[in-house]
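Researcher: Let's run the pair from yesterday's discussion. Sequence first, then tokens, for each.
Model: Starting with the first of the pair.
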Amino acid sequence: MDIKPLRYFLAIAQNASFTKAAEQLNLAQPAVSMAMKKLEQELGLTLIHRKERTITLTDEGQRLAYHAEKILQATDDALLEMSELKGLSKGEVRIGIPSMLGSYYFPPILMAFRHQHPNLSLTVVEGGTWQLQKMLENGELDLSVIVAENLPDNISTHRLLKEEMLVATAKDHPFSQQQNVTAEAFFNEELVMFKEGYFHRRIVNRLAHETNKKPKIGFETNLIPLIKSITRQGFGISTLLSMVIEPKDGLITRSFDPPIWLNLEIAWRKDGYLSQANRAFLDFLCQQADH
């Protein structure tokens, strides 16, 4: 089977549209439609439901999409490895980093790596850890920082750091008179939270479930300076990693009771090919974490 139609097929499945798939592939739409008809004829199966302007996959199409993703990822990995053996690698590292780490932990590491390897390019994608993990599994990222919990079997990891999630409040908040804060007391306050999908929010949601509490979320934002500003002015309280709190923020921090610690790890696909550039970055990052 020619794998090119599989790329067309996945593009259609991802876009739910022949037209958008053709635009993504930089092809004429009739060429994409013809390739799909030929693929269906070759397999003797209907892969796509075509109802007016609605495009969905049949059960057979869904099964093919599952296998096509693996086939194309393996093909791309093989081509990259062969290119490197011929010395044609572009030397690109694609890494996903949660916003808290991207702003406070990683900048000096990224700059130090670029200083050692000036010919390698770095592409940094910011997002929630769940989103980044899915992008890693789908081959959209080579490496990603994730919170180590409920990891699939196809992911390998190395410990980066262990960080405490702290309750953050204004200086005049009653919590400033306490040594620590229970989950029950935390959820009695109005909260300033990251949006869904970020590990910050997932930890809070899990804590709420464990304590049978419903969070009272007054503000949602992924902008850390805005979270700090709203909290400093007393319009709510939040929870942040200890690394992002600075004296100039004008905030009081307290541990949860009991304390909440997160294991942050660098992850990569077990079955994926790590290029020489990615291996160099992974080795550099692990050395920094182990010191």
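Model: Moving on to the second of the pair.
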Amino acid sequence: MNETRILSEELWREPHLRIALVTETYSPEINGVAMTLERMVGGLIARGHRVQLIRPRQGRTDDARHDDGFDEVLAHGWKVPRYEGLLFGLPARSLLSRSWSRQRPDLVHVATEGPLGWSAVSAAARLRIPVTSDFHTNFDHYSGHYGLGWLRQPVGAYLRRFHNRTARTFVPTKAMAHALQERGYRRLFVVARGVDTALFRPAARSIELRREWGVGDDDPVVLSVGRLAAEKNLWLTVRAFRAIAERRPTARMVFVGDGPLRAALAAQAPDAIFAGVRTGEELAAHYASADVFLFPSLTETFGNVTLEALASGLAVVAYDCAAAAELVRDGDNGLLADAGDETGFVMQAVRAAGDAQLRARLAGSARALACEQDWEAVNDRFAAELVTVWCEATGATPTTSPSAITSRDG
């Protein structure tokens, strides 16, 4: 919310909306969805919109924040079973209806699909407030990783119904839009993700950190960043590193993040470094001080860590899906394997770790690509489409003041 921006004269002419944004996760929680939403909220405020954020209370000492253009409403939440550290919001239709009847938002944006999100869609529909949604997470794909594969079809049906109740569903890639369209989703709109290239940069490389890891200048460091959870396919990361270590015994594996699989991964990779959760400059240094980034997940809708690794100048090895499918050109700015081809993934990881010249060439192209993924352009596109949805719902034009619509409608 501290994003600054010089607004163009044309942008100032756009209507400034009151936007209620509903989410089950937000900063200071650490995950890709929370980070993305914080960036987008900051972008909306920088463009003159007011944001009311509705989220679950994250702890007993958690207090609602109120800043210029930003207000929070804290709802009740519950821990996600078998997924420590994450919450889902409890149903809150009455709370939302009362709040929005007292101070009506121009538009409701629902970022997550839990009970709180469903309540928000229902309350907005009853009050005839236009509502949009985000598709951030393949929850139906997660079920198989937690012994609940039988839930995949009903969860998929719920998600489709949820999003089809909204005027737009925002997705991060064209491939995801195509896949969801084939599954019966309607009114999809692509808004990509950006990366902070001032934070994630090759210059953050730390000789001191590499010494802590016990590696020399020429020893390859293999990095994984993200939640240590079953849906991230981290067993393949361990398998790939073992193949690398057979050829390069001085290589080192570093995991950044935490989660329910930490103990099991440590048992399988006893020589790996588990750095825990890192943020800000510490996270940037961990990225830049590595050499190869492995990302074998098949459940991502995007995968922000892929873009962060590219910005940090790493040789990225990933499956040809999600962000990697849109951003990585195999052999040019990273290395790809066909989705699900574990042998191919391991071969690409071994190739990257064993060839310093290849890594250097990939790193330069990776950084150049990341510098094109500007958060400002992403936030412009997102904010403009919210205005379009409001205009469609109210019959307004992009230069109409929301207060004028409110007065006209009584």
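Researcher: Give me one sentence on the second I can quote.
Model: The chain has 17 helices and 16 strands.
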